[in-house]
Specification:
The protein is of the alpha/beta class. It is about 45% helix and about 15% strand. It is built from 15 helices and 13 strands. The termini are far apart. Bound molecules: 4'-deoxy-4'-aminopyridoxal-5'-phosphate and glutamine (GLN).
Length: about 400
């Protein structure tokens, strides 16, 4: 028989699935894959349930139900001051994952160069490559994860079609500041490149940092694609409702990709997401404050156990160096070790690199978007395992 696509068949199974399966097998506390153990806002779930029972459960419009597209546009105005035309500039997708695929397959021509920033979310590289893009990787270095400007500038060329990046950033919890975004925008303008910005953690941001979309910067409105996720903003990761905002010229092609990927997304979940995006400001500030408290809870406890915990300015995750505990294996070894021996699961940060063997091998990513009881159980188990 003929072989299947070599690039796709050569992929491993995503680290999130691997580690969650291992967690189930060993009944460990799963702080690996990023998902809350909260139920999510009741009004959002009730709206979706009600729509499921009483609403129109047939194919919604390809671009998404008007109520959600309008809510995405209103939300962009409320939080980013963006004027968005919901009819021509908003697309609903089945999760940010589909949104990313639609953008990459819609925008990349085989041979185009694509600038990416490591560590990176694990779906980016396979999709860029499958679309025929040539990745140009720029690495952030721990512990500051500062943007290396000279390297970034050198990664751009006349062949650059787009930069794909993520802020707040999974897994290293960096938040790009205005100066960094301005620098990226300058390169996009100089090289006539697009910015595809994965902003799924836009509301999970800590301290006095604020999420800023590169789409708001001068001259970037027409060349930015902004991606959000109801899964993250409403702690409902299983819903897989994403949304793309882009100028009509870009959106037309992205939407044509979407029409043959999924065409649409369950209407009741779209309805629920629309209710969510229209929640009052205090829902969103409360989400950030709650997550920040959970971050502090876990980060302080991991430091007490002996980890060297890096700062986390956003997302669901803290990154911790396990070498001070005396563990000399790789991050893969460590994450398997604590799953099997301590009953707690984390994910190895090297999984977020193109070449894991050449990546930092001493960081584990722990997910803190859990109830205190879950975090306490994990802390107690790790403390017992590594304690005196
Ligand atoms: N981008 C990043 C950075 C993520 O962490 C995730 C994981 N949820 C996604 C995209 C995918 O989001 P969704 O579940 O909405 O597909
Ligand atoms: N975004 C989640 C994480 O980083 C995982 C999503 C998935 O499992 N595909 O943990």
């Amino acid at each position: 028989m003929k072989s299947s696509n070599a690039l796709m068949s050569g992929l491993g199974t995503t680290v999130f699935e691997v580690m969650s399966a291992l967690a189930r097998q060993h009944q460990s506390v799963n702080l690996g894959q990023g998902f809350p153990d909260d139920k999510g806002p009741e009004e959002v779930r009730v709206a979706a349930a009600d729509y499921l029972l009483n609403g129109h459960n047939q194919y919604p419009p390809m671009m998404g139900i008007p109520e959600l597209r309008q809510a995405v546009a209103e939300h962009a105005k409320r939080f980013q001051g963006l004027d968005v035309d919901w009819q021509t500039e908003v697309l609903v997708t089945s999760g940010a994952t589909e949104a990313l695929g639609d953008c990459l397959f819609g925008l990349i021509e085989p041979g185009d160069e694509v600038v990416l920033i490591e560590p990176l979310y694990d779906s980016y590289l396979p999709m860029v490559r499958r679309a025929g893009g040539i990745p140009k990787l720029v690495r952030l270095e721990p512990p500051t994860w500062r943007l290396p400007r000279a390297e970034l500038a050198a990664a751009f060329s006349p062949r650059t079609k787009l930069i794909l990046f993520n802020t707040p950033m999974n897994p290293c919890s960096k938040v790009f500041d205005r100066e960094e975004l301005e620098f990226i925008a300058g390169l996009c303008l100089e090289h006539d490149a697009y910015a595809v910005c994965d902003e799924v953690y836009e509301h999970i941001i800590f301290g006095d940092r604020q999420h800023l979309s590169i789409m708001t910067l001068p001259e970037m409105r027409a060349r930015t694609v902004r991606i959000g996720s109801a899964g993250k903003s409403f702690s409902l990761t299983g819903w897989k409702v994403g949304y793309v905002t882009a100028a009509p010229e870009l959106m037309r092609t992205i939407a044509k990709t979407h029409q043959f990927m999924t065409f649409t997304t369950p209407p009741n979940l779209q309805w629920g997401a629309a209710v969510g995006l229209r929640l009052a400001d205090n829902y969103f500030s409360g989400l950030a404050a709650d997550m920040q408290r959970k971050r502090d809870h876990l980060a302080v406890a991991l430091a007490d156990i002996g980890f060297d915990v890096l700062p986390a300015h956003g997302t669901y995750f803290v990154t911790a160096d396990f070498r001070p505990l005396g563990f000399s294996g790789t991050d893969d070894d460590f994450c398997r070790h604590i799953t099997v021996e301590a009953g707690v699961t984390a994910v190895p940060v090297s999984a977020f690199y193109d070449e894991p063997l050449l990546a930092p091998r001493h960081f584990a990513r722990f997910c803190f978007c859990k109830h205190d009881t879950t975090l306490d159980k994990a802390i107690e188990r790790l403390g017992r395992h590594f304690g005196p």
